[in-house]
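INTERNAL TRANSFER SHEET
From: sequence group
To: structure group
Subject: Major facilitator superfamily (MFS) profile domain-containing protein

Please process the attached sequence and return the structure record in the designated field. Keep the field labels unchanged so the import script can parse them.
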Amino acid sequence: MSADPAATAQKTEPGSLPDQPKLESPTNEATATDDEPWSIWSSRGKRAILLGASFAAMLSPLASNIYFPALEPIAHDLGVSASLVNMSISTFILLQGIAPIFTAQLADTAGRRPVYLVCIVVFLAANVGLGVQNSYTALLVLRCVQSAGSSGVQALSNAVAADIATPAERGSYVSFAAAAPILATTLGPIVGGLLAQFAGWHSVFWFLAAVAGVLLLPMAAFFPETCRNVVGNGSIPPPKWSRCYTNSRRELRGRGGPQTEPPRIKVGFPNPLRPVMLLFDRECCWPLLYSAIVASPFYSTLALIPSTFTRIYGYDELQISLCYLPFGVGALAGALAVGRVMDSNFQRHAARLGIAVDKTRRMDLGRHGSFPTARARLEVAVPTVVLSTGFSVAFGWMLQRRVHVAGPLVVLFLVGFCAVASLNCIAALLLDLNPTRAGTVTASNNLLRCLLGTAVTSATVPLVQAVGVGWTLTVFGGLNALFMPLLWHIMRQGSGRRVT
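Return from structure group:
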């Protein structure tokens, strides 16, 4: 190995997050040199690391969706109105957007591993408290703590994918990271309905505490540090307080790379404005905005399922929770399928420019002219964005016409497939643009989507009451179509950029 990642890492003050370079200059302390592997981990090791990150990212959607079937019994037992119980949903969503602003910055400086462990412990403790409380005030406060712990790690799975995967394989890894959260979104309402019906609503929180405990043990023992600002490509030993069994075993076997002093990490209080400032960054603002817009039709689609399916088909809570299965299965299929297509399209553009694709090393994509990063990612998203919009509108008019339930459920599968495929393409592009601050840009993406998602879900029911479900989803689909030219603008703007 001809160069040591630490040599370049030490040029930056260890305690500060280095400024992200413009894409015309793709070298920085987080990238490997041309003759170094991008990551010391094997393909099997990368998949194992990302599997752990994916399961940790599952906690937030699981805690959010498993709670819905328990709303009515909670309101009854605590003697409060349904609107007051719904406040615990609003505060949970609010913390979902705020917590990653802080934890993602810490993960980009102090490392991923300590943030994972602290957040999982906080989540576990909050669920134990929720499992024993019988007070509305305690419910509201502990739900905020629960949200902070779970959503604090939600943004990190994509950051881990950026740490260990080269751009040539990043599409597949980003999609793989989304698998467990999608399953949690799908299965959460079903599990919550069964627990609330047969074991009482307290059992929902004890179940979440058990999930956190089962996850905490292997994460503490085996999940290694991957942050490139801390360990480079993995060859730099992490600080002793952040090591796990996996790190120690590699060092004993002499596979940890050159013997380099671990970096001295100075952790300051995260600047809450840093993720917000990315919304005004010339290269990031449009992909971030379009990601939130693309998500709006399927947010509204999911928001109207409970009330609409109850009114039209007379379904109870358990039957309604089962209606989310087609969306979840479609979303999982879309996430896994689009990853391979993104990688294939990336390789096609590389071949067109005469660039040999190496999935283990950083490729100098600037030697043959600027690489069309945005086109390589977003060309895949164009058909799925169009189809997602059309299927959402079709779903609304099927319900408006009260067709047989099989029709809306099939379309719900297609909405899930296309919507998640589109969002994963944009997420991969954002990671390409921000390899050294992957956690921060993912937190920015999460913040904007949470804000717009909250507005959309709040407006859905009043719109349905005013104009009907068909026109409601037509309005949100029209909003998506109105901003669709932004997709081509992003591809044109980024067509002359380079990727690291």
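Handover comment: The CA atoms of residues 9 and 29 lie 5 Å apart. Residues 438-467 form the longest helix (30 residues).
Transfer complete.
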